[in-house]
Specification:
Layout lengths: L2 H19 L6 H25 L4 H27 L5 H26 L1
Helix pairs in contact: 1-2, 1-4, 2-3, 3-4
Amino acid sequence: MAYQDLAERLEDFAAAIIKLYAKMPNSYAGQYLAQQIIRSSCSSALNYGEALGAGTSKDRINKLRISLKELRESLRNLNIQKKADLISTTDCDNLVKENDELIRIVVTLIKNSNE
């Protein structure tokens, strides 16, 4: 997978989360989790973009690790919302699958960078 393809997938994931925000309940928990997942999903894409422009290998790996951390946070958030019935299984399942695939890709990039 090309680096730009991954950048686009991360952007698409963040955009899908933003679109999901409109469907989330207006309760305290719904709004809290919605705002948090928008931050973490967008941060994963933004930090990956920073990794692409990193000046050193060490800086690139650090940015990839931040992106990975934010993706993991997004996954936990989706799982909590699903378990609390804040979002429907239909809305959630594709996002969880994509989130999981993105995590696996970023983990592979980090491992390959350390070799």
